[in-house]
């Protein structure tokens, strides 16, 4: 087995995962289109745009040549923004082989097609979707590069591939669990970004802890509702990829989604928010995708719906909150059909 791994691309999360691998004395190639970023990583062992003030391992080498990045490796980690995953996977295709472990850690959907990221990658590589591994869970890049204790989950329909990914990443500060529910892990990782946007917006409006706790709880309920309708295991949403990632993304200033929501709550326009962030905010794209998915499956997602109106229909955030609070009376427990109950327990 090769002691080399490749990470595509060199954003904050990609660099953090590359650092985890470098700490295992692996030779790690990070691919980036940005030549200035490449030179900074190689010459200064820094990636200050995404992880300012962090010294990177000399085992981590950057390149702008895809062939150079992946040649000689049996493990490739794709951490590109959701909008770029198809192109990156297409560039990987000429060098991909059946023994190559492919892990992705991108949390979102392909907005135009509404396809999950594992589907996009498998289509471009021409491999079975079940061979792809999804890495998700509560894991801020800013803390991982400081070697703070972190626990994540890797999911695949192929147990051997999941086990390989577990062995690839697991070390003394980065603990990795496996999960067979690839669909649920992928959905949870993407959809929680919507609720994190809402939590930030609530904080920006000054609504306090009561409102945010309710938002997270009811947000988890609607994530689970759409996930189960699409075929996921409900228990996944109570695990690391679900409630774990939701809590960390919706309560931390490290979170781009929380920060974007906070600025929206303060009254800033979406264009202003996006220009000031300087990095991709996946929750914005995911909100648009979830709005369409909920209509397709005829599943109510009231929080996602109101956030969609704020982001894309110019609804005032306060009006969105009033609409949520003024909804018809409901019971807290979801109405569960016999068919759904049997699905949950098989």
UniProtKB/TrEMBL annotation:
<feature type="binding site">
    <location>
        <position position="107"/>
    </location>
    <ligand>
        <name>NADPH</name>
    </ligand>
</feature>
<dbReference type="InterPro" id="IPR006109">
    <property type="entry name" value="G3P_DH_NAD-dep_C"/>
</dbReference>
<feature type="binding site">
    <location>
        <position position="139"/>
    </location>
    <ligand>
        <name>sn-glycerol 3-phosphate</name>
    </ligand>
</feature>
<feature type="binding site">
    <location>
        <begin position="256"/>
        <end position="257"/>
    </location>
    <ligand>
        <name>substrate</name>
    </ligand>
</feature>
<dbReference type="GO" id="GO:0046168">
    <property type="term" value="P:glycerol-3-phosphate catabolic process"/>
</dbReference>
<keyword id="KW-0443">Lipid metabolism</keyword>
<dbReference type="Pfam" id="PF01210">
    <property type="entry name" value="NAD_Gly3P_dh_N"/>
</dbReference>
<dbReference type="InterPro" id="IPR006168">
    <property type="entry name" value="G3P_DH_NAD-dep"/>
</dbReference>
<dbReference type="GO" id="GO:0006650">
    <property type="term" value="P:glycerophospholipid metabolic process"/>
</dbReference>
<feature type="binding site">
    <location>
        <position position="12"/>
    </location>
    <ligand>
        <name>NADPH</name>
    </ligand>
</feature>
<keyword id="KW-0547">Nucleotide-binding</keyword>
<dbReference type="InterPro" id="IPR013328">
    <property type="entry name" value="6PGD_dom2"/>
</dbReference>
<feature type="binding site">
    <location>
        <position position="50"/>
    </location>
    <ligand>
        <name>NADPH</name>
    </ligand>
</feature>
<feature type="binding site">
    <location>
        <position position="256"/>
    </location>
    <ligand>
        <name>NADPH</name>
    </ligand>
</feature>
<comment type="pathway">
    <text>Membrane lipid metabolism; glycerophospholipid metabolism.</text>
</comment>
<feature type="binding site">
    <location>
        <position position="141"/>
    </location>
    <ligand>
        <name>NADPH</name>
    </ligand>
</feature>
<dbReference type="GO" id="GO:0005829">
    <property type="term" value="C:cytosol"/>
</dbReference>
<keyword id="KW-0444">Lipid biosynthesis</keyword>
<dbReference type="Pfam" id="PF07479">
    <property type="entry name" value="NAD_Gly3P_dh_C"/>
</dbReference>
<keyword id="KW-1208">Phospholipid metabolism</keyword>
<feature type="binding site">
    <location>
        <position position="107"/>
    </location>
    <ligand>
        <name>substrate</name>
    </ligand>
</feature>
<feature type="binding site">
    <location>
        <position position="282"/>
    </location>
    <ligand>
        <name>NADPH</name>
    </ligand>
</feature>
<comment type="function">
    <text>Catalyzes the reduction of the glycolytic intermediate dihydroxyacetone phosphate (DHAP) to sn-glycerol 3-phosphate (G3P), the key precursor for phospholipid synthesis.</text>
</comment>
<keyword id="KW-0594">Phospholipid biosynthesis</keyword>
<dbReference type="InterPro" id="IPR036291">
    <property type="entry name" value="NAD(P)-bd_dom_sf"/>
</dbReference>
<dbReference type="InterPro" id="IPR011128">
    <property type="entry name" value="G3P_DH_NAD-dep_N"/>
</dbReference>
<feature type="binding site">
    <location>
        <position position="256"/>
    </location>
    <ligand>
        <name>NAD(+)</name>
    </ligand>
</feature>
<dbReference type="GO" id="GO:0005975">
    <property type="term" value="P:carbohydrate metabolic process"/>
</dbReference>
<feature type="binding site">
    <location>
        <position position="107"/>
    </location>
    <ligand>
        <name>sn-glycerol 3-phosphate</name>
    </ligand>
</feature>
<feature type="binding site">
    <location>
        <position position="141"/>
    </location>
    <ligand>
        <name>NAD(+)</name>
    </ligand>
</feature>
<dbReference type="GO" id="GO:0046167">
    <property type="term" value="P:glycerol-3-phosphate biosynthetic process"/>
</dbReference>
<keyword id="KW-0520">NAD</keyword>
<feature type="active site" description="Proton acceptor">
    <location>
        <position position="192"/>
    </location>
</feature>
<dbReference type="GO" id="GO:0051287">
    <property type="term" value="F:NAD binding"/>
</dbReference>
<dbReference type="GO" id="GO:0141153">
    <property type="term" value="F:glycerol-3-phosphate dehydrogenase (NADP+) activity"/>
</dbReference>
<keyword id="KW-0963">Cytoplasm</keyword>
<feature type="binding site">
    <location>
        <position position="192"/>
    </location>
    <ligand>
        <name>sn-glycerol 3-phosphate</name>
    </ligand>
</feature>
<feature type="binding site">
    <location>
        <position position="33"/>
    </location>
    <ligand>
        <name>NADPH</name>
    </ligand>
</feature>
<feature type="binding site">
    <location>
        <position position="280"/>
    </location>
    <ligand>
        <name>NADPH</name>
    </ligand>
</feature>
<feature type="binding site">
    <location>
        <position position="245"/>
    </location>
    <ligand>
        <name>sn-glycerol 3-phosphate</name>
    </ligand>
</feature>
<comment type="similarity">
    <text>Belongs to the NAD-dependent glycerol-3-phosphate dehydrogenase family.</text>
</comment>
<feature type="binding site">
    <location>
        <position position="256"/>
    </location>
    <ligand>
        <name>sn-glycerol 3-phosphate</name>
    </ligand>
</feature>
């Amino acid at each position: 087995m090769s002691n080399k791994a490749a990470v595509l691309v060199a954003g904050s999360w990609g660099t953090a995962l590359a650092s985890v691998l470098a700490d295992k004395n692996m030779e790690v190639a990070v691919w980036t289109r940005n030549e200035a970023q490449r030179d900074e990583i190689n010459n200064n062992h820094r990636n200050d745009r995404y992880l300012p003030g962090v010294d990177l391992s000399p085992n981590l080498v950057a390149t702008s040549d895809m062939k150079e990045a992946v040649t000689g490796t049996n493990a490739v980690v794709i951490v590109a923004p959701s909008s770029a995953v198809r192109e990156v996977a297409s560039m990987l295709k000429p060098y991909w082989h059946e023994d190559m472990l492919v892990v992705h850690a991108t949390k979102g959907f392909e907005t135009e097609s509404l396809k999950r990221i594992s589907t996009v990658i498998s289509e471009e590589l021409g491999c079975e979707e079940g061979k792809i591994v999804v890495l998700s869970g509560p894991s801020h890049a800013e803390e991982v590069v400081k070697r703070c204790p972190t626990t994540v989950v890797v999911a695949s329909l192929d147990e051997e591939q999941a086990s390989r990914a577990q062995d690839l990443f697991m070390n003394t500060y980065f603990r990795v669990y496996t999960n067979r529910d690839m669909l649920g892990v992928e959905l949870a990782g993407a959809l929680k970004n919507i609720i994190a946007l809402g939590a930030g917006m609530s904080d920006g409006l000054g609504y306090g802890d009561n409102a945010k706790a309710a938002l997270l709880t009811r947000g988890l309920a609607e994530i689970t509702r759409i996930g189960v309708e699409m075929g996921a295991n409900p228990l996944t949403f109570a695990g690391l990829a679900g409630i774990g990632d939701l809590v960390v993304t919706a309560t931390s200033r490290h979170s781009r989604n929380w920060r974007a929501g906070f600025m929206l709550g303060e009254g800033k326009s979406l264009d202003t928010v996006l220009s000031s962030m300087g990095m991709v905010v996946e929750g914005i794209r995911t909100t648009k995708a979830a709005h369409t998915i909920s209509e397709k499956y005829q599943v109510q997602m009231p929080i996602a719906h109101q956030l969609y109106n704020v982001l894309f229909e110019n609804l005032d955030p306060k009006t969105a909150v009033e609409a949520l609070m003024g909804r018809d009376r409901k019971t807290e427990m979801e109405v569960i059909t016999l068919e759904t109950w049997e699905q949950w327990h098989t």
